[in-house]
């Protein structure tokens, strides 16, 4: 399914593109243009919507003629008169048909926020962290592009510096351990934990030198980080960790 994508360019303009997912990867179908002002952005978005519109999608003929809504104009207060005179009939001024100025997926955000709260994550009392988590569920992307995802969800994103400070706060306050406890409590309350599934994911990083986390292994040129994860029989993940990779034996 194709959608309209807005991205900030290096020159400060806003590029409008039409993108789609193909085999799990995002592919740019068409580049509509770049806008430097709000008016230009509105024109490009309208053009993109026209490109996405299906010309074969017709409309039902209900035999109803659209009627423009009426609105009364504010008139100057009449001067006091000696006798009460009935004011002449005022004709309501016709206004144009309604126009959609913006759309968002606010309902999707509300649904994800409800799941976030049901898991007990609201106890963290960190709104920016919640927005980062839900935005990454919708579309995993960079910090710089997270603002676009949140805008599509009907949320006003925090600044890039605030988002980065939030990530640092996650490590300082031990969010990983707190979330693991909340997930375990949810799994225990909603079922049983008699069966525990365990999985290990290996991530590769290319760097010149090893450090306390990244160790050369499984390859002669890449550092490895092992990330184990546990979940209940019903698939509720409640524990994860990040461990140094094991060095490759000689």
Question: How is the topology of this model organized?
Answer:
Blueprint: E1 2-8, E2 14-22, E3 25-35, H1 38-52, E4 70-71, E5 93-94, H2 106-118, H3 127-138, H4 143-152, H5 160-172, H6 175-190, E6 196-205, E7 215-216, E8 223-232, E9 237-240, E10 243-244
Antiparallel strand pairs: 1-2, 2-3, 4-5, 6-8, 7-8, 8-9, 8-10
Description of the structure:
The protein has 250 residues and is an alpha+beta fold. The protein folds into three domains: 1-52, no CATH class; 103-173, no CATH class; 179-244, no CATH class. Helices cover 32% and strands 24% of the residues. The protein has six helices and ten strands; from the N terminus they run βββαββαααααβββββ. Strands 6, 7, 8, 9 and 10 form a five-stranded antiparallel beta sheet that branches. The protein has a three-stranded antiparallel beta sheet with strand order 1-2-3, covered by helices on one side. A hairpin with a 4-residue loop joins strand 8 and strand 9. It is extended. The model has no long low-confidence stretch (mean pLDDT 76).
Radius of gyration: 28 Å
Ends: how far apart?
49 Å
Tally of alpha and pi helices:
6
The secondary structure category is alpha+beta
Morphology: extended
Give a brief rundown of this model.
The protein has 250 residues and is α+β, with helices and mostly antiparallel strands.
Keywords:
3 domains, 250 residues, 6 helices, 5-stranded antiparallel sheet, 32% helix, 3-stranded antiparallel sheet, alpha+beta
